[in-house]
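queue> holo job accepted (beta-D-fucopyranose)
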Amino acid sequence: MTSLSLPQHSTMLDKSFVYGVATASFQIEGGSADRLPCIWDTFCDTKGKIADNSNGHVACDHYTHWREDIALIDSLGVDAYRLSISWPRVISQDGKLNPVGVKFYTDILDELQHRDIKAYVTLYHWDLPQHLEDNGGWLNRETAYAFEHYVDLITTAFGDKVHSYATLNEPFCSAYLGYEIGVHAPGIKGAKFGRQAAHHLLLAHGLGMKVLAKNSPNTLNGIVLNFTPCYSVSQSDADLKATAYADDYMNQWYMKPVMDGAYPDIINQLPIEVRPTILPGDMEIISQPLDFLGINFYTRLYYKASDTAPYEELAHQFPRTDIGWEIYPQALTDLLVTLNETYTLPAVYITENGAAMADKLENAKVNDQDRLDYYQQHLNAVHNAIEQGVRVHGYFAWSLMDNFEWAEGYLKRFGIVYVDYATQQRTIKKSGLAYRDLISNR
Ligand code: FCB
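queue> job finished
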């Protein structure tokens, strides 16, 4: 198949189903001279942290090319664009708005509005101002209040230019990858650190939601969580128990506080010295009502029992994408259906889904059939979940264009648009053309 399609009766072919593309500030913008340093600048400067020793100083130079990039988004015919705001670009060290940074985004939001593209704004996609990290970052409770202040200022400045706000993108990655196993910025290692950072991130989310309810009651306000569904290698009690633990530790740790105001019960099995400090009232703040839940999905993982730890994680199975993640679309259907059974879900959006593939630009074309197949399988998976009663309202491809893929640098390409980093030339890949046609054929 060289096109993307859905069953004729699918509600994903209704015009009300939102199709979009997604990016994040640090991954595409560049323009680092016009903002404060963030934890990813520092991490990139630390030897051995980024696979190709690269950094975000130029990236896709969206800082210069934003207007043509929005024209490109428009040419794909999407309904929406999910972007993130760089906190260190819009708030200066004294806690005041930086007018240069604010104008960068209000210009973008105006251009999107002018082209009738809905702006889905993520307020925190991992680029914490370095000066806050110097005071403890997400290990310091004060960072949650600094976030609240930032959200208050920026949402007031944006007025009615935004369609939807997400407080955080993937607090699992910020907390677990950043403060527990240290493979993402700021590169801190320790279970207590990871759990404490997660709690302060969730607190920041709750405080942010309260500000949004006050400043921006008419936007669709929520959070974006990532899920990597956990599968057991066998049906033995020990393996099933280990797998359930892993799911609670990696996935439900973020979902359950937000939805139910409580951590998974395994919190009581953690050694006392690893448990996060939780103050009275925190869980009520964290569990604010949501207008939507954003779900990011890429892959699944297998688990089994271990003699020395609560679980053992297995290597990814095959087939895999270029970043080594198993392709298993059924997990997306299973995830959506299970979440819908477990929680009272608000409107659901797939806020990220996509694949890294080893693309080649040949004769001004990128024939990424493998990515196109990935999209087809995962769109089908979303359709199947909707058929089973899950209220999915939209789908965003990750990503609009190739960009800085965190610890992998520029080596992994996730775009439906190819970026030649030497010339900053953009080329819509076969998958991007198919996505465009799916949307326009509705
Ligand atoms: C997600 C991130 C996003 C991107 C994709 C591949 O975890 O939210 O920025 O890097 O993975």
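queue> The mean pLDDT is 98.
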